Structure prediction request, 1036 residues.
Amino acid sequence: MNLLLKLAWRNIWRNKRRSIITLAAVSFAALLAIGMRGIQIGTYSLNYKTAIELFTSYVQIQKTGYRDNPSLNNSFVFDNDIKNILEEESYKFTPRIYADGLISYKDASLGAALFGIVPSTEKNVTTVTNKLSAGTFFDSDNSNQIVVGAKLLENLNAKIGDEVVILSQGFDGSLGNQKFTISGTVKMGMSEFDGMAVFIGLSSLQHLLGMDDRINAIAFDADGLESAEILKRDLMQKISDPELSMLLWEELLPELKQLIEFDNVSGIFFLGILIVIVAFGILNTVLMSVTERFKEFGVVLSIGMPQHNLVKLVYIETIMITIIGLILGNILGYAVNYYIVQNPIILGGDLSRIYEEYNFVPRLESSLNAHIFFNVSLSIVIISIIACFYPAYKVYKLEPLKGIRHT
Amino acid sequence: MEILRAENLVKIYQDNGVPVHAVRGINLSIKKGDYIVIAGPSGSGKTTLLNLLGALDRPTNGKVYFQNEDITTKSKSELSKFRLNNLGFIFQAYNLIPVLTALENIEFSMMLKGIPEKEREEKALALMEELGIKELAHKRPNEMSGGQQQRVAVVRAIVNNPAIVLADEPTANLDSKTAQHLLELMQRMNKEKNITFVFSSHDKQVIEQAERLLILKDGMIVNEE
Amino acid sequence: MLFKLAWRNVWRNKRRSLIVIGSVIVGMIAVILSDGLSNGMLRQMLDNQISSNILHIQIHKKGFNDNKIIKNYIEDSDRVEAAVNNTRGIKAYTKRVITFGLLSSANSSAGVFIYGIQPETEKEVSVINSYIKEGNFLGTGKRDIAIGQKLAEKLDVGLGDKVVAMANTPSGSIGSDMFRVAGIFQTASSDYDKVIIYVPIETAQSMLELNDKSNEFAMMLNDYKNVASVKEELSAKLGSEYEVLSYQDLLPMLIFQMDLYRESMWILNLIIGLALIFGIINTMLMSVFERIQEIGVLMAAGMKSYQIYFMFIFEALIIGIIGTLLGIAAGLLVHLPLSFTGIDFSLFSEALESFGVGAVIYPVLSIENLISVLIIIPMIAVAGALYPAYKAVKLEPVYAINYV
Prediction:
């Protein structure tokens, strides 16, 4: 082994207690950072995935301009040309209409988000049809049955099987209303959906709104966040109609995306502070271990050891402690994250209601993504190198004689 | 052949704001194979002179020439290289690196010179054997007596074949028997290998063996024998 | 005496003590900033909700809050008005008609909460008129309507454009009326801007066949701290036919969230504290080991073990307290200017607006948190000194004196 490495290694164990406390600090910081990042990143992807697969879907084709001005005017004809292209590529897709309306039962009337869907293909794209909490889902897209959010049913004071009136403004601007029968309720765990959503067969809604063959969106399934991007690019190539836009999940869920970014940034800020505090501890330890060896350093400088080699020694020592601490912290962090991945933390009681209020899944998951471990470790190594600047500078400036005389 | 020459050396340093004239105008020439002892009472400037000769300190005035080259104008890193290649040091308190074994301590200065590991070990062991301390090779400083440590320090100082070995009060911490033993060792090295030694000491034993004795008082050479 | 010794010892190795104090200061700044932001965010959510719409207290017919249907109107307005007028501490009140309806433009339609309001008194209680971006808040025109920016975009309408509102009447028939957009507002909440519209109360009453009835009395108090007592007094006067709800009752999730935050913020402080403790243990250990000889002398001179023990504990405590105080001062130095200028999070504006926070967050400090760190951090410092101090006490005097 290189003599310098050997020297550094033995120096670390010269004051065992001090080194152990320092590496415990590094492990603690790494463990905490890995644990927190794991929960953040795991929970983010859970929420992305849930929101996407619940109903939003990975990719949508919309009429260009619909996102900024979501009115029925911004709809397009789902003609055979498009259908053929999509079927040829055997994509999983489903057409939809979104509209606002009023749902009335007896003397109560409430606002409703009307979703015109085709249950048989919707099933292939999202999980909404599985979220039935009572009753049944209609299976024909021209049925006069509807499925409503569980909370909405409650607010209407209605029961499954009751007849309700849905009122909405049609494509041509005129108002239309029609009677429907509630066949079931869905519970999606998001206040926005459970209190507002009304699912209607696509054809029935087209009829009510006088839309003929027009729709607002085609939703697509993908194998994950990454393949969604590929899918979007493919679609843009295949359907090069400037009237139509292909939107990725993050464009469809801008608020969720920003919310998560915001949380992410604040999480990183907190961890940054934590690591800086640990860096102060490292700075102090290194400074002390250097100062108490000034005499020794003076001797080796007299012998003719170049100053920069001594600086190197100080760095090697610090990095060795940091790395041992990191190895420990990474192992512990992996164990904790693995445990949480296997046993997600389910939030109960009022806490879960807060999460639902903000349309979040009340569950904390973790992640074993290698980036977490790498980024945390790298930041700690970098900060400990920075913490070494001052002690290293002291060593660099050390005069051999001053060192020898140092007591 | 002259290897080191001091011309009109002066060193003034500040001690709590009070200027102290530690060395005042010393001229000295050291030849290959010399065995010189600089003696004098404490405070006479022995150590300061030795430090100036060993390029550990810079003179306030005057020059030090090594093989006719002025070393007082060299930069810090040039000096460090100079010491590594030309000088060996022995300190009063042995000053071995505590976490390294005797062998590794000796290898250390060879490592700095960039000598390959295998060669280092062979050379160090050979020299240790020659001086009869091979059994100390794998001991750490705190497992050795003072005399043993100082002998390791001697080996460390001469292993790179320096032009001059500077020894600052090398026997001060040793009993007379051990000191005698150590001095014999250094004399042998001086005779057999023609290594130049410069001592600073007020130890009688050291002074007795001097080939050249410089007596220092108040920073000046008052007598030379 | 012990304290003096400890104090001098702290400054013997200035650099070392200052580095530890520095780490405490960084921790404190972080605590103060993050607490300020979280607190500020929650406060803004609450303040925005209260000042723009919820107000301090609302009175409805019993059951209206859970089921906002038009049929749940207040039948005896005069009685409620008399009760409100006879209660002290109420700054101003206003009447509102509230129902869910559909608002349509030529292009599109949206489900909305129709608020029939008294523009003059509404201005006295809520700040909604200050959010007007284009046009004016409701004036004297019977067909004036004020809608949110998001809704205007969705319906693709601007000032002066025609919209039609439609809603159920108590008898079950559909009432509708035409309005012209008089004002467009933008609050800190995108949800609010999407679903709330304001029309004059008389027009709403005639469209909904309510005569002069209303659904809600909403009021601001002179001092929000009196909410509980005023609420109690009103409920006693009005009896069980009515519900008197404070803002806490009306925003249960937000209040719960604030409580939860208040109860859990010490965890954050503790984590920062734990990060600090390693540095403190190491520093104190070194402080003990470099003074072994001195400790031996003190012991030999008759200093008792517990005195030596406390000397080190005090040393850590002094460092902890100085660090915390300086840290709070430094934190305030960062916090105070920000609490006036706010921190612009435009990058996350959509998310923050969906929460009703607004893109600029004004940090607010909680006294509880300052007290919590003032206790936790010095305690952590003491905890960090326990082991080193124990080490000092365990020394044998003879060994210690001869230690070099």
Q: What stands out?
A: The first strand of chain C starts at residue 57 and ends at 61.
